[in-house]
Amino acid sequence: MSNKANAIYSTAIALIFALAVYNLFYNLGNFQIANYDEARHGVSAYEMLQNGNYIVNTYRYLPDYWNLKPPLSFWSVILGYKIVGYNALGLRLIAAVFGLLTIMMVAFFMLKKHGKLASAISALVLTTTFQYLTNHGVRTGNPDSLYVFFFTASVLALLLSGKNNKWIYISGLAFSLAFLTKSWHAFSIVGIIGIYLILSNKFRSFRFKQWILLISCMFLPIMIWGIIRYQYDGATFFKDMVAYDLLRRSSNTIEGHVGGKLFYLRIFFQFYILWFSILFGAVLVYLNKNISFKQYQLLTPDKKAYLIGICAWVIIPILIFSVAKTKIRWYIMPVYPAFSVIIGVLASRVIRDGKRAMKIFLIGAILMASGAYELNIYRYVHHDYPDPEQTLIQQLTGKYEMKGRSLFDYKRKKEWPQKIVLTAELAADLHIDDGNFNAFLRSDRGLLLVQKQFYSKKFLDTHHLRVVAFNKWGYIVGKVQ
Question: Where is this chain's protein located in or outside the cell (predicted)?
């Protein structure tokens, strides 16, 4: 029976990992670059490479005091560029890799702690969590994939520290790496660690040396980065990091990201309702049969601490970001691995101990939910909405005579979209210029972006220009040499 169970699990988990690879990597480099965060991160990573400065992130070659993140996520994009080149795949590759590693880490943890069935269920749930993969998720060049990996690693290590204190130092180190990826967001982990240590009474057993080691693991890497960063622009970056990225985001609604106290609950219902239904159903069945206050009191301290840690993993991030004024749906992305763990634990126990009809119903519900979400993912990975302005600039890829030139826009009055800045840099190392048509005429090697309605043969002849690239959106032209 054991060999048969092992074979079934091995087959199931291999299929789930294969599905995860498909969901994460299929068509990854063919999607157009998203504006704002993905493009901004891509620009900073590219310019770090060009500048040879891997500490100060820039935007259009000036220090960036809008994207106030430590450098770890930029380094991950740089690694992607180094592996597959300056393109959308390079922008997203390492994020997708860490998405896969997160799924595998959850599966391995569940296998060791809760068995084969729980492992397979948790891996399937996370693999088919639509929001985890898509908007700002692990299929994008944003820092969230790396951040969720370190967040998950920190909490899982914390949960393993019940019997071996060495794991808590790994938890602290993973927190510091999460902070170096996404800044203040990572302090949810500090709350989880604190509640775990206090409510489990584990803090009482810590000696002074252990506290020093834990604090060092948590904050020494951050301090080292801070000291190095301070050498470049003093306290400027850190002042903005506190004033804007922490205080203003938490106390005010910025950049139009509004939402009430139930904002994240609505997000869960929009993107996670089927898994939530299975979770609540499993909770009701399991609580009815297995849990009472007296039974909780009979749990060993380690098991109590474990239960407290899992609950804090869900509650703390949701609570913190529900209180904060700025609401963005990917802020609570770290709770999706937590939900996959809880669903895996409860559903596997109901299937294992429940009546035959309940087992069949729950297995069917899990398969239907994963199938429904996988259909949404399938539609997503097979469809993109091409940006004609991006595709026009991408035609310059490989045209080495265009590299390093300045790109002007014939009629643009607003700031250049960040996705166009990144596309221009990746395609031909173009430098975006805010000058108008007259500034282009004064330049020696400039290129001009001209929308179709402003283009004519007479326009070319009058100014001695030639077409470099064109599509249905417009033209890129340069001077006749």
Answer: Cell membrane
Strands 474-479 and 465-470: antiparallel
- Quote the CA–CA distance of 81 and 48 in Å, as a whole number: 12
Which tokens in the block code for residue 129?
Answer: 């969590």
Strand pairing report for 447-451 and 406-409:
parallel
CA distance 405 to 421: 13
Torsion angle (degrees, nearest 10) of CA 230, 231, 234, 235: 0
Is-contact 163 302, C-beta < 8 A?
yes
Q: Are residues 257 and 403 in the same domain?
A: no
pLDDT above 50 (res 244): yes
Residue with tokens 């126990």: 349
Task: Note down the domain range covering 423.
Answer: 388-479
Q: Residue 293: what pLDDT?
A: 46
Same structural domain, 366 and 424? no
The pTM for the full model equals 0.94
Q: What's the number of domains the chain is made of?
A: 2
Same domain membership, residue 459 and residue 368: no
- What's the rounded Cα separation, in Å, for the pair 127 and 23? 8
Query: Would you state the structure tokens that stand for residue 398, as one six-digit string?
Result: 């490989």
Query: Which segment, 98-112, 285-299, 459-473, is predicted with the most confidence on average?
Result: 98-112
User: Taking residues 284-310, what's their average pLDDT?
Assistant: 70
Nearest to 76 by CA among 109, 106, 38, 25: 38
Instruction: Round to whole Å and give the CA distance between 35 and 32.
Output: 9
| Domain end point (choices 382, 407, 422) | 382
Q: 258 and 327 in contact (C-beta within 8 Å)?
A: yes
Cα(107)–Cα(113) distance, integer angstroms: 10
- What tens digit of pLDDT does each residue of 53-99 get? 999 999 999 999 999 999 999 999 999 999 999 999 999 999 999 99
Instruction: Name the token pair of 151.
Output: 């967040």
Are 286 and 358 in contact, with CB atoms under 8 Å apart? no
| Same domain, residue pair 228 and 305 | yes
CA distance 8 to 119: 12
Residue among 167, 128, 138 at smallest CA distance from 76: 138
316 and 172 in a single domain? The answer is yes
Give 467-476 pLDDT, tens digit per residue.
999 999 999 9
Q: What are phi and psi of 459, to 5 degrees?
A: -60, -45
Co-location of 451 and 344 in the same domain: no
Q: Which residue, among 437, 370, 417, has the nearest Cα to 20 in the 3D structure?
A: 370
